Structure formats: structure tokens, C-alpha cells
Amino acid sequence: MNILRAKSITLPNGKVVPVKRSKTPVIILALLICCYYSVQITGFDLQVLVKRINQFWVILADMIPPNWNYLNKLWQPLFDTIKMSLLGSILGSVLALPLAYFASSNMRKNQTVVVVTKFILSLLRTLPTLVAALIATFIFGIGTMAGTVAIFIFTIAYVGKLLYEQIENADLKAFEAMQSMGHSTFSAFRFAIIPQILPNYLSNAIFCFEGNVRYAAILGYVGAGGIGLMLNESLGWRNYANVGMILLLLAVTVFIIETISETIRKKFL
Amino acid sequence: MNIIEKHLLNEPKRTVQNVITAVIVIIFLMWSLTAVDLSNFTSNGVAIAKNILHGIVTPNTDLLFTFNTNGVPYLLLETVAIAFLGTIVGTILAIPLAFLSASNIVPKPVAFIIRLFLIFVRTIPAIVYGLMFIRVTGPGPFAGVMTMALVSIGMLSKLFVDIIEDLEVNILESLESIGCTPFEKIRYGIIPQLFAMFISVAIYRFDMNLRDAAILGLVGAGGIGAPLIFAMNAYKWSEVGSILIGLMVLILIVEFLSNKIRNKIVRG
């Protein structure tokens, strides 16, 4: 029973130091049990996977070479996708600022407001973007508007959360000095806190936009406009050469936007 | 002129920069506003919005508390299982890829090629992977697991690479100087540094996978997504409400737990 007994080391001067027991075996055991039950529930079967994995490449092989003639039809939806994510990201980030202000426990003395705002932000965050888009298509009809709303909601939740965490961790010395000089909470927030959080806020917003472009691409699957609509259509017709073209275009676009956003974040913020 | 006014005058003037930034943002905003198309928006939409809200407020409690395979609890369990197993498989696949794309471990060209490959893996939407795996495994949660695994690889290996590149090499040198074998160097010098951070990243990704697993139902890859969409297309808003409530509660609980565990792991 060597595992269960706590080990101890006797130092040359006679002092006995107990060795802290590692929790790793317990964690590994728990993970293995979870794995076993997950395998049971999902019907995971390695044999099937090994035997039939060649089927995985069938669709991929059909995508090569991509159908270059299809490219002309893709520019409009691609720009729709970018516009959708741009609009949703800008509006969402702007609205996130007041919400984050109300959700910060060091800005608002009324804790009810803080807790309620935080709860709303977490609720918005739990709503998967695709589900939000689906609901939006029912309300706003099929088209880019639904996608914009879904991205807007996601951006508020994401940027808002990061922002209130920053406000709560901000240095309050300047803020308190301004309050003691007679500034209202709001104007002290404007002149003491905003300059502190602005670089990170902008950086988060741009990062969110970058992710949103990638996300917007699949929103079309539920009819929320953009290039996802074309993706859905081509998948439906099993026209995998077209799918390959869409994916290639998306990869290039995402890569360009990532590069631009990384440059902006590194150089200017 | 006192010292405060002097400092005020010394404040850098950024008017030109601010105006330029504002103009650029406004141009982008205007350009993107052209995407707004409200022509499909009818008064019908308002009625549907009301119905959805009504459905969420008055969920179908039968569905919410039935413990057979059609009830919300089982579907949520299935979703958790998909996300969990997907994260595990994804982590197992991501670790070698991360080592292969860490520029302090392998030569630069190899690292670059693997990185390019990872960018492609990351851009392919989950739905396409889902369709590809359904060919392999048939529709069902198994396809969902494999899809989640592939979708996770991109982010997991990117974060793993950052951790690997931050490895503290001094420890390895001191271990070598006291005469440790390469195996001991890995066991006592590298694994303790990486293990906690890797687990923290994996838990974070599990949290994200749980959200994404909800969309797999769209392609028939199991989880709670499919019943949700069927209920929506059939305008059964109280069922939609109960599924959404279940999903939200689950995600909130998992997020709470994962934050707690990660804080504990990282702070030791």
C-alpha cells in the first residue's frame, strides 16, 4: 500500500518533511471513468473509425480541384458576410461599454444593478450564436439582418464580459482623486477609467471581429445570409468542387483579416 | 500659470489622429450598413418574437423533467458526453501537432508548414467536418465526437504552442548539471511545467465545445441541436423554451465549475 501512505523524507539534521501527495492518480481515474461513460453514451468505436476512415477523404478529394468559375458568384456573399460581422461587431462593442459600466462592482454602489447586469451578460453568452441566428431568422426574416443580430448579441456578451473584468481590476487611484475633487462617478469614469481600459477594449473588439468573420461564415447555414448560404446550397447539391472554392476563399479571407487585425493590435494598441 | 495648467498644456494633441480614426470607423460603418435588409421583416416577426418569449417563460415542463432518451436531461447528458470526448480526442491529437509547430523544438520550416496546415484545419466550419464524418460513422453522436475533436485541434494546438515556447529551459540545464538522464529531465523538468497549463486550456476548450456541440444537431451529429431545430421549425415554442432553459442552465453551471477548477490549477 505504498500509494496510500504519505511519504516523508528525513533530512540530515533529523527533521522529517512530509512529501505532499499528488492528486494526479485520482484525477486520471476520474477522467477515465468519465471517458468510459461518454464512450457508452456516444457509441464511440475505434474499430469503425479505423476501418472506415478512408470515407473521410472522399468529400475532401471531391473538393480538389476547386471550381474556379464559381468564384465570380462568391464576391457578393463574401462581402455580405464581412459587412454583417463588421456591423454586428461595431454596434455590439459600442453597446458593451455602458453594460460593462453597470456590471462593474467598483463603479456602481447599488449591487442589485451589478448582479442583474452580470446575469444578463452571462445569459446572452450562453446562447449559442447559431441558435441566436436561427431565432433571428424567424423574427427578421431570412437574410443578412438575422446574422447581424446574432453577431451583435454575441459581441455584446463577449466584449462586455472582458470589459467589466478589466474595469474591476483597474487602478482606482485617479478615479478616487477625481471623485474627491467633485467629479460625478460618471465623469470620473470617463476621464480616469476609460483611458486605462481603452487599448485592451479596442484590442478585444478587433479580436472579436476577427472571430466573428469566421463565425458569420456558418451562420448562413440557418439562412442568416452571407457566404454560408452558398455553402449550404453547395453542400445540399453535393457540389463539392464549389464547397472547396468557398472554403479556399474563406481561408484566404480569414488569413488576411487575421494578419491585418494582428498588425493593428501589435502596432497601435 | 501654475504647474497643473502647465501639465495640461503639455498633454499630447491627438486631434488629427482622432479625426482620421473616426472617419475610418464611420466609413466602415456606413459601408456595412448597406448589408441591413429589413425587407423581410414583417409584423409577423413581432408576433413570433412574442411567441418565443412566451415559450421561454412557460416551458414544457414534461420535456424538461423526463428522464428517458427523449427528455431534455438525457439530451444534455449526450451533449456533455460529445463535448467531453471530443475535447479528450482533440487534446490527444493537438499535443503532437503543437510540439511539431513549436519553433524551439523543431526546425523553422517544419514548424511553418504545420502552422499553415493548422490554419486550414481551423477555417473549415464544423458543419463541413460533421458531413465528412457522417460518411465515416453514420449519423449520431459518434460523428459529433469526431467533429468536436477536429474543431478543437486548431485552438488547442495554438495555445499549447504558446505554452511550449514559454518553457523555462534553465531548469533543464540545472537538471542536466546534477546528472539527470533525458527521461528524468522530461519527467521532472518539462511535464510539471506543461501539465497544469495544458489541462487548464483543455478545460477552457471543453467549455467552448459544449456551446458548439449544440449546433452539431444541424447536420444530424447528435446532441441537443436537432430536437431544438425540429421544435423551432414546428413552431413548438414551449418545447424550444424548455430546451433553451436546459442548455443555458447547463452552460452556466459548467462555466462556473470550469472557472473554479482553472483558477485552482493555475494558482496551484
Automatic annotation (TrEMBL), chain B:
Keywords: Membrane, Transmembrane, Transmembrane helix, Transport. This is Phosphonate ABC transporter, permease protein PhnE. It is found in: Cell envelope; Cell membrane; Membrane. It holds the Pfam family BPD_transp_1. Residues 76-258 form the ABC transmembrane type-1 domain. SUPFAM superfamilies: MetI-like. The chain crosses the membrane at residues 16-36, 74-100, 112-134, 213-234, 240-258. The gene is phnE. Belongs to the binding-protein-dependent transport system permease family. It is a multi-pass membrane protein.
